[in-house]
Amino acid sequence: MRKFDTKVQHLKYKVLREVARLAWDDKLLENIMDIPAKLAPGKEATMRCCVYKERAILGERVKIAMGGDKNNPNVIEVIEIACDECPVGGYEVTNACRGCLAHRCEDVCRFGAITFDHNHVAHIDKSKCKECGACAKVCPYTAIVGRKRPCQNACKVKAISMNDDKAAKIDNSKCIQCGACVYQCPFGAIMDKSFMVNAIDILKKSERNTRGGSYRVYAVVAPSISSQFSYAKLGQVVTGLKKLGFHDVIEAALGADMVAMAEAKELSEKGLLTSSCCPAFVQYIKSAFPSLVEHISHNMSPMAVLAKYIKETTPNAKVIFIGPCTAKKAEAQLDEVKQYVDCVLTFEELQALFDSRDFDLSSFEEGVLDNASYFGRIFARSGGLTDAAAQAMKEQNIDFEIKPVVCDGIEACRMALLKLNKGVLDGNFIEGMACVGGCIGGAGCLTHGEKNKSEVDKYGREALEKTIGDAISLLK
Amino acid sequence: MLFVQVCVGSSCHLKGSADIVELLEKAIEEHHIDDEVVLSGSFCIGKCNRIGVTVQVNDDVHVGVTRENFREFFKTNILDVIESERK
Question: B14, A370: Cβ pair inside 8 Å?
Fold first, then answer.
């Protein structure tokens, strides 16, 4: 049983798996050209106009699975030939318009963009339309549709436009690497670059494998893992990671515990703070609200804080972060972070790694994973960071009234930042999460579902440590 | 100077790393050797045992430290070592 939300994810996964198989066997260079034909065999096309185009696109996917275009600094990349050049006409009246008498569309349009011909059929004047969508909402026949590309629709920071060939184009100065477009494009034409081959290389040369390596590889896993790999138990996933060659598996939630303590203190000192856990949110402030950069918490993200701790206490350690997040791939390239985090993988890539070794996770014995507190673990969902910061205030006896503004998704973040910019924000702590739902809505998740939040809460309650102080008391 | 690292990897953690850290802190205070011991945590040392916690003292790894055998462990591997260093 494999669970992905869409067939596009499944296709991407198959490419990753094949690349991983060859990489483990050191056969990547010799056999790389065979992957497209292996995944799209025969003469009949199943996805595109012809099998040759399918293979050409698969070839591009293989490139991205191996790190993508080195000249493009963005970890999110468009496969131009895979882009279906979806229509971008904006709001249009379809032939479902019956030429009714009510003309609700006209009444609701504040821009006077709607006119009628002699049959009372509505027409939209493109030069006046502001694409607010009000007409589409009131039409009793749902005859008005908004034609917007799924990628543009998904990109709330408006980094996606069309190039001269009508293919999607990403403005790197606006892109926050949240991966929303990657997940939403129905043709899989936008992908996050994969550093899985680097991870395999690190694992192959480590102490645990037989090639005489001298270092240990630590897997730092995000708490949202509790809502993933639902066909196996979390303990079995831990065992699977160790079989891949990881020396130990540590919860990023422990880093979250450390961050919660430090951030509570910082907030009480500064009086106003925006969170720094979500790399896409941090990048958004940097690119869209440069004047607010001073309010970003100086604490690094849980991933970076924990990786720093591991590297400082364990000589010859290497750290691979595994999470739901495409923006973490960009965060790991930042100067202040790259010395601590050697590689970032998504859950999608981890699934491909497991299957490239033909692991049957559900048959493994259960390993253990326990380092963090309830509060560290619930960072994975929207609102968790705020709960943890409030708890950390209590535990450290800090007398400060925290007035949180929980922003679920980048649009909510934008609203809060606009208010902060104007000085009308009712609150002193902005918890910003670029993905709706928090990390469990991340683009690198295998599945996104209603019950993921309750899975994370359940996992949180299973923590042995009930307070943040308990969890980090051992780390000195 | 003794560097004492208590394993707080998942396996040891579940077998009571927290207890051992607490006992160590108390014992170090009791014997007034704070200046001679640096206590810290460490992720998996790679010697997961069925019972007890793994503790590394300088380069020596000791497995299976529990509440019950703590006194003995502390004496042979920490107090006695400090004694001999003083001489």
Answer: yes
Assembly ipTM: 0.71
Q: Which residues 348-377 in chain A show a CB within 8 A of chain B?
A: 367-371
Sort strands A76-78 and A190-192 into parallel, antiparallel or unpaired.
antiparallel
**Tokens, residue A252:** 């990023």
pLDDT at A476: 55
What's the pLDDT band for A314 if we cut at 50, 70, 90? confident
State yes or no: pLDDT of A101 exceeds 90.
yes
A443–chain B nearest CA distance, Å:
28
**Mean of the per-residue pLDDT values for chain A?**
93
Above 70 in pLDDT, residue A475? no
- Integer CA distances (angstroms), A84 to A15, A151, A250, in order: 20, 11, 41
What domains sit in chain B, N to C, each tagged with a CATH number?
A: 2-86 (3.40.30.10)
Output the pLDDT for position A212.
64
Per the listing, tokens 């992905």 go with A4
Ordered structural domains, chain A, with CATH:
1-66 (no CATH), 71-85+151-193 (3.30.70.20), 90-147 (3.30.70.20), 197-472 (no CATH)
A316 and chain B: CB distance < 8 Å anywhere?
no
Name the pLDDT band for A196 (thresholds 50, 70, 90): very high
| Three-class SS state of A345 | strand
Q: What percentage of chain A exceeds 90 in pLDDT?
A: 84
Q: Exposed e or buried b for every residue in A382-411, given b needs 16+ CB within 10 A?
A: bbbbbbbbbbbbebeeeebebebbbbbbbe
pLDDT at res. A449: 85
Ramachandran quadrant class, A294 (left: phi over 0; alpha: psi -120 to 50; beta: rest): alpha
Measure CA of the first residue to CA of the last residue in chain B; give whole Å: 13
Distance CA B77, CA A359 (A): 42
Paired sense of beta strands B2-7 and B37-42, if any: parallel
Verify whether the Cβ–Cβ distance A473 to B21 is below 8 Å. yes
Worst-scoring range by mean pLDDT, A205-219, A357-371, A441-455? A205-219
How many angstroms separate the CA of residue A229 from the nearest CA in chain B? Answer: 20
> Which of B5, B8, B43, B55 is the mutation pick for testing A, counting most A CBs within 10 A?
B43
DSSP letters spanning B17-85? HHHHHHHHHHHHHHTT-TTTEEEEEES--S---SSSEEEEETTEEEEEE-TTTHHHHHIIIIIHHHHHH
A25-53 exposure pattern, b = at least 16 Cβ within 10 A, e = fewer: eeebeeebeebbeebbeeeeeebbeebee
- Interacting residues of B61 by C-beta distance below 8 A, sequence separation 6+: B45, B47, B54, B55
